[in-house]
Design brief:
With 210 residues, the protein is an alpha/beta fold. The chain is built from seven helices and nine strands, in the order βαβββαββαβαβααβα. The protein has a domain at 18-46 and 106-199: Rossmann fold (3-Layer(aba) Sandwich), CATH 3.40.50. A five-stranded parallel beta sheet has the order 2-7-1-8-9. Strands 4-3-6-5 form a four-stranded mixed beta sheet. The chain is globular, with a radius of gyration of 18 Å.
């Protein structure tokens, strides 16, 4: 039973949201977040720390915090991460202080996470909003992964198999958005509509980060 909090319909309180954009490799999570920024969406994007080397065009402190495995392990020991995981034999994690400060400032917070990381966030912070981004078909997803040409054939096949397993976890999410080829703006519009709708809830999701 919900508490009897008095809601003023003329002056609704805006509660910052924690939004997780997730889905298999190749569905366009990075592109979606960048397009959201270009559309003028106001949010704090949480930069993930990773021990993997940067890909061509990626910038430290913008796309990811690129750190050595030893530096990442030190962050774990000092409890500086909200969650972390080993993904394709490389560390990935969310710096805790970033999230705490952004929520305290009243900003919506957006995270881009793999499916495993999204599940961890939902367990730690049940009021987080999980959006599963997917391609229109498995064939399209495989084609996108092949076009990246950043991995060996064995690594590519591993990602494809992992993507199939991750697709089965869609039931753990709150929303699903299809990012069709050449229709990124449509996917962005749907994500922004979800965020807007969540802000209109009579009983907002209040994220509490200790």
């Amino acid at each position: 039973m919900r508490d009897a909090t008095v809601v003023d319909p003329y002056h609704p309180q805006i509660t910052p949201l924690l939004v997780v954009i997730s889905g298999p490799s190749g569905v366009g999570k990075d592109s979606l977040v960048e397009a959201m920024k270009e559309h003028g969406a106001q949010f704090h994007f949480v930069i993930t720390a990773t021990s993997r080397p940067p890909r061509p065009g990626e910038i430290h402190g913008v796309d990811y915090f690129f750190v050595s495995p030893a530096a990442f392990e030190a962050m774990v020991e000092q409890d500086e991460l909200l969650e972390y995981a080993i993904v394709y034999e490389q560390y990935k994690g969310i710096p805790k202080q970033q999230v705490r400060e952004a929520l305290a400032s009243g900003q919506d917070v957006v995270m881009r996470l793999d499916v495993q990381g999204a599940a961890t966030i939902k367990r730690l912070l049940p009021e987080a909003i999980l959006i599963f981004l997917t391609a229109s078909s498995e064939a399209e997803l495989v084609e996108r992964l092949q076009k990246r040409q950043t991995e060996s054939e064995a690594q590519l096949q591993r990602r494809i198999e992992t993507a199939r397993q991750e697709m089965e976890r869609i039931v753990e999410f709150d929303y699903v958005v299809i990012n069709r080829e050449c229709e990124l703006d449509d996917a962005v519009a749907k994500v922004l509509q979800i965020i807007q709708a969540e802000h209109l809830r009579v009983h907002p999701r209040e994220v509490s980060l200790a």
